[in-house]
Amino acid sequence: MTLKQTGLNAETVAALRSLIARRQPGYSLEAPFYTSPEIFEADMELIFGRTWIYVAVEPEVPEPGDYVTVNLGRNSIVILRDDDMGLRAFHNVCRHRGARLVQGESGAVGNLVCPYHQWTYDLEGKLIYAEHMGEDFDKSCFGLKKVHVRSIAGLIFICLAAEAPTDIDELDRVMTPYLAPHDLPNTKIAASIDLIEKGNWKLTLENNRECYHCSGNHPELTIPLFAYGFGFAPGQMDETELAQAARYDELVTTSHARWESCGIPSAEVDHLDDCITGFRTQRLPIDQSGESQTLDTKVASKKLLGNLTDTALGGLSFWTQPNSWHHFMSDHIVTFTTIPLDAETTLVRTKWLVHKDAREGIDYDVENLTSVWNATNVQDATLVEYAQAGARTPAYEPGPYSPFTEMLVEKFCKWYLDRLKDGIA
Question: Which of the four CATH numbers 3.20.20.140, 3.40.50.2000, 3.90.380.10, 3.30.70.100 does domain 167-424 have?
């Protein structure tokens, strides 16, 4: 691929090739990957510009004309529901002189009308009105620029590339049976919180891909979740810890057998580093009552999702490269999307979803629903900021990952570097 095709300058490409070539597997990345504005621009083009990015959920656009917007680098994208209830995504740019069509983060429209000169587009992106353009003007040549959009059981992904990776079909095939019992399209957003982390987006993802840090930093999260679910080193554990790890393993075995017998897929599937549209899933047991990711481990909403009747279904975890993770329980869903803002700042957007008929204050309490992940997100933001501060210093050098608890971090780094190599080959 030529420099013209990538849009990157020769110096950036040369620096990337050198950094990739000398990266030692099993070690963290060198500091420029976390601090360099030039590498950030490469990330936005080669990662966020060419892979499937999780951005929203279907309940955000339930009716024709409903829309949400998302900003990825310099790109603004509008995602909307058309008159036939299909999903559409377009660059949020008028084809006249480039004005931004939609200004807010969400809303509803009959048509998309440019606020500058009132060029008007229907919900399929066709230009239907453009005054004073003359008899020879062909409106059919000036429709909105389309963006690939795909819903996976209610999770909305977009891809900015001219040709989107086709292996999302495999993600869809594998994941839809796991996600479908939770019936995300028939939920509503009970809470949504944006958090700005003072760190590079890769540090946010690396932090998410391990629980090495959990027992020392997440007192709320480790009430419902077992840190052992992300690995442990048996030779360095005392008898009590070994007994707890053995209890967890037994709980995984018995829970998976019970859930699978009820038609609830639970087994681990891991494609985090062997395909372009990387993903991983596994249904993990919840401690104590085993019901939900709450401080008392009981359901936060009395109204269960879909047609579920069993409250104790653990938590289905679903990770996607490069920017999301999700937890599906019997009573609610928590989704996370990571949006890079600049080389050292990242937006983490968290949404909590409950059954669309659940009543706030009667079936669920927002504070109880959100308490575990609200606390955990703030704690993680602090840890990411610590890591970013260290990466800026001359003393920083790549350190070794734990082979027992940071395997998924290594898979993320491998996936990331593979995408860069493909982009500058």
Answer: 3.90.380.10
